[in-house]
Amino acid sequence: MNLAELNKVARAMVTPGKGILAADESSGTIKKRFDAISVECTEDNRRDYRELMFRTHEAMSKYISGVILYDETIWQKAKDGTPLVDVIKKAGSIPGIKVDEGTKPLPNCPGELITAGLDKLADRLVKYYEQGARFAKWRAVIDIAPGIPSYAAIHTNAHALARYAALCQAAQIVPIVEPEVLMDGDHDIDRCYEVTEFVLKETFQQLYYQKVSLEGIVLKPNMAVSGKKSAKKASVQEVAEKTVKLLKNCVPGAVPGIAFLSGGQSDEEATAHLDAMNKIGGLPWNLTFSYGRALQAAPQKAWSGKGENVASAQRAFLHRAHMNGLASMGQWKSDLEKKAA
Ligand code: 5MM
C-alpha cells in the first residue's frame, strides 16, 4: 500500500470548491428514479442519462472531484464509443466505484440490515483499479425506529465497513466509508445525533482494530437532522451546529475529508446545511458533498428521457454542482438560487 498516494487521491476528492457525484444507483434504484419521470429503464437510457452529466464539462471540471459509478457504468461506453471512464477523466474528475452488493436482512435483528459484498471483493477491486477506479464506496444502512438500532446491527455493519476499507487500501483504492443513519422516521434531531454518534464511534473503533489508515479514507456520513416525519424540524443553523459538534466528537483529524450524503433532504436544504457548516469554519477536515438525489433530482426532471432536453438538463446539473461547490467553501447565498430560477 502506498499511503502517500492514497492520501493524495483522498485530498483531491475533498478539494475545497469541489465534491462527489453519487451516480451509483443500483438497477432497482435507477428504475424508481426513471419511473418517476416516465422513462423506460433500459441500458441505453441509463447510459444516455449518465453520459449527459459526465459531458457537462463546466460542472465536471470545476465542481465535481469524483464520480461514484455502478458496476454497469464503469464498463460502459458513451454513444460515440468512448469509455465513460475516459469521459470522466478527461474532465479532470476521478472515477470511483460502488462495491457493496446492497443490503440483506440481518439475522436475529428484525427490521435491520447488513450490507453484503465482501466475498471475492479483493479480486473485484483489482479489476476496478485496472479499469480506472481510484476510490470505492460501501454503504451501511442504520434505521431509527422503536427498539432499533440494536448494538448487533451497528457493530456488524461497522465491522463490514472496516473489512471493506482495509481491502480497498490493500488494492490502492481510497475507501469512502458510508455509515448512513436514515432520516425516514419521526425522531427528532437529538435522537439522530445520539444514534449517529454511536455509529461513528463504533465505525472508527473498527477501522482502528483493522488497521485502516485514516489518512487514506473519506467519510460519507449523514448530517444530524430531524426525521422526515418528525413534528419538530430543526433549522439550518441547528443542523449545522449539531452536525459539526457531532463530527468533532467522533472523527479524528487525520481523516482528510468528510463528504456528506443528502439522504432525502431537498436540493436546497442539502446545499444550505453544507454551507452553514463551512461558514462555522475552523475544522480539521474539509467538508463537502457526495450527493446523489440532491445533485440529480433537477437534471433528471429537466431531461425526462428526451434528447431535446439534454441542454436544459445539463444546465440544471451545472447549477446544482455550482451551488454545492460554493457551499463546500461556505460561500453559497440563497439569492443565487432565486436568480437561477
Ligand atoms: C446514488 O444512490 C446511491 C445508491 O443507492 P442504492 O445502492 O440503494 O441503489 C446511494 O448509496 C448514495 O450514494 C448515497 O446514499 C447518497 O445519495 P443521496 O441521494 O442520499 O445523496
Question: Secondary structure elements and their pairing?
Answer:
Elements: H1 3-13, E1 19-23, H2 27-36, H3 43-54, H4 57-63, E2 64-69, H5 71-74, H6 84-90, E3 94-98, E4 103-105, E5 113-115, H7 121-130, E6 135-142, H8 151-170, E7 174-181, H9 189-209, E8 218-219, H10 236-250, E9 257-260, H11 267-280, E10 286-291, H12 293-303, H13 310-327, H14 335-340
Parallel strand pairs: 1-2, 1-10, 2-3, 3-6, 6-7, 7-8, 8-9, 9-10
Antiparallel strand pairs: 4-5
Helix pairs in contact: 4-13, 8-9, 9-10, 10-11, 11-12, 11-13, 12-13
Residues 22, 24-26, 29, 68, 102, 139, 180, 261-263, 291-294 line the site of 2-O-methyl-1,6-di-O-phosphono-D-mannitol.
Q: Descriptors for this entry?
A:
8-stranded parallel β-barrel; 10 strands; 49% helix; TIM Barrel; alpha/beta; 341 residues; two-stranded antiparallel sheet; binds 2-O-methyl-1,6-di-O-phosphono-D-mannitol
Name the CATH class. Answer: Alpha Beta
Spatial order of strands in the largest sheet: 1-2-3-6-7-8-9-10
User: Do you know the CATH architecture?
Assistant: Alpha-Beta Barrel
Q: Which range best describes the helical content: under 10%, 10-25%, 25-40%, 40-55%, 55-70% or over 70%?
A: 40-55%
- Number of helical segments with 4 or more residues: 14
Reading the helices and strands in chain order gives: HEHHHEHHEEEHEHEHEHEHEHHH
Low-confidence stretches: none
Attached small molecules: 2-O-methyl-1,6-di-O-phosphono-D-mannitol
